[in-house]
Amino acid sequence: MEVHQNQLQSINNKEEKQTDIWQLFREAQQNILYLNKQRLTAIEELDRVKNERQSLVNKIEQLEAKKQGNTRRDKLAISSELLLRIDSMVLTGIIGGREASDFRKLIMDSRGGVTDDLYDTIYKKDAELLAKLRHFSVKGKKKGFHIVHICTEMEPVVSVGILASYVTGISLALQRKGNLVEVILPKYAELNLDEVQGFREVEAQLYSYFNGQLHENKVWTGVVHGIGVTFIQPVYYSSFFSQERVYGYSNDFERFTYFSRASLDYIVKSGKQPDVLHIHNWQTSIIGPLFWDVFVNQGLEGTRILLTCQGFDSQCLEQPEKLALCGLDPSRLYRLDRLQDNKKAHLVNILKGGVVFSNKVIIMTSIQSKDQIISGLGHGLQPTLTIHKEKLLIAPRGFDKSIWDPSLDKFLPQNYSADNVNGKSVCKVSLQRHLDLPQQASKILVGCIYSDISEFDLENLKMLVWMASKKGVQFIFMGFSQSAGISTALEFFKEEMKVFYLHFLLSANCFSREPFIGLDE
After folding, report:
1. Where does the record place the Starch synthase catalytic domain (predicted)?
2. Reported pTM
3. Which of 175, 317, 319, 459 could be a cystine partner for 347, CB 3.0 to 4.6 Å?
4. Please, what CATH class does the domain formed by 422-506 belong to?
């Protein structure tokens, strides 16, 4: 019995040991599972921290990039303000043209260092600023071109057609590449510059020749998007730019000829010596013959003329004797190889004069080649364009994203960006609702912003709309044409296509009632 009890006790002890071992094993398994779960949780937490860290790094990089961009824009604005102050000192007789030219080169060659050192004195009296400029005046090699636009539109100041965004976009792009860019505009009555921060009237008298006499002008200067802008306002001919519209008056030739002559007078009197005078469309084409016949020997021997044409359908035909209004010799220019119109031989063609007297001519188009434009879209200028074919350049229409950013536009129902396009469908449906189009985010919606459409393009467009609309494609056309014929054709097109998913937004030939919206920002 005793032996038997000892055996039973031994068995019980073994079973208890086995039970303890299994208990330990199960506890070990649970611990391992718990540790694995904790490990996975730790890995997930680590990934989350890494992602948050990367997100913070990205945000910091974006903020740094934005800060650098703002800093660069600030320096451009300071440089432009300094250059305008130099112009003012020349006009008021404080400094001469040669010293002003040296100061301009100083600013152009040292956008960073000098502008930082002069920041505190930029709004002080002329004597203090002049002392600083003379202190920093050093000879240096010119690094960029000095380009002056003489034009009738610029965003966001005054915008009628595609010219306004083109002038602003190309000016910003050229400044980013280290060039100095300025813009000269008419002072339209709608633009109340007294209420705009940073714009001021230059206390100087600028006289310009017109209609046999010298007439006084007021000059206003300021900075838009970091670009120096000058406005010229006639005193005696104050009615020239007091109308509600920019274009479309019987005296448009007189209005823009006066402005063109006054712009050249301002450039000479302020001592500017730009590398390029960039003129636009027929409105400032008279600068071509004016420059070579009157102004080239007034310190502008190194300047060249660049003409940009948004199209050839608007040319301005006038009586030859009217050229004398701005000081030109009609008998010298009224020739077939100069300004005489190719079809109406008794008239002069102002746009033709711009083509003939410019060193280069840029033609804005998205689809046509140079030969197509010369043969089919010259609107009577084919012989002239053929003779001057070598100076013609074709440039596609583009978009400058620095002007508009959908991620920042406060007027959009929902913002979006290239990285997050979710808000784009919301904007699309909102646009469809606003224009009474069937509201469906999955529908293909084609937007077309145009300045002018030829009859050939219009016929192709009709066929495209007809075919695509049968598949539910929606179209929105927005734009403006200075040509009455094209506007009428577009109205007929709108009427023909009204049964399709199509909407037209035809803008009037006038500028915004709020021309400086967003300028302070």
Report:
1. 146-385
2. 0.67
3. 317
4. alpha beta
